[in-house]
Design brief:
95 residues; elongated
């Protein structure tokens, strides 16, 4: 009786150690128009050095759009200026 209980547990433990642990690649793509975050061009700091400070005297959207137009970092990544510029830039694009 012990043998029939112990054997499956040992086999499960062995197979768990034998499997190759591959990295998990979690990638996604936002397929949105170039003007989704206001009139292009827009930029974002990647990685952000610090989050922008919100001025309560203006709306959050106005403040964030100002930040996208004038990012305060050296490593800004600028977005496309038109939908035509976006066309065909994505890896694996089937066009």
């Amino acid at each position: 009786m012990r043998f029939t209980t112990l054997l499956p547990m040992v086999l499960l433990a062995i197979t768990g150690f034998c499997q190759e642990k591959l990295p998990i690649l979690d990638m996604h793509l936002h397929a949105l128009p170039a003007s989704q975050n206001g009139p292009p061009p827009n930029a974002i700091c990647a990685p952000p050095e610090e989050m922008p400070v919100h001025d309560p005297a203006e709306s959050w959207a106005e403040g964030f759009n100002e930040y996208l137009k004038n990012p305060d970092c050296k490593n800004a990544v600028w977005g496309a200026t038109s939908d035509q510029e976006l066309d065909g830039q994505n890896p694996g694009d089937s066009k």
